[in-house]
Amino acid sequence: MKKLLILMMLLFSVSVFAEKLTTDGKDNLDKLKGNWDSILASIEKKNNNWYIEYSSGEVGKISKYKSGILVFNLSDEYNKYGNTYFAWDIKYKTLVMVDRNGNILSKEKRVVECIRNQTCN
Question: Are 63 and 71 within 8 A, CB to CB?
Answer without folding.
Answer: yes
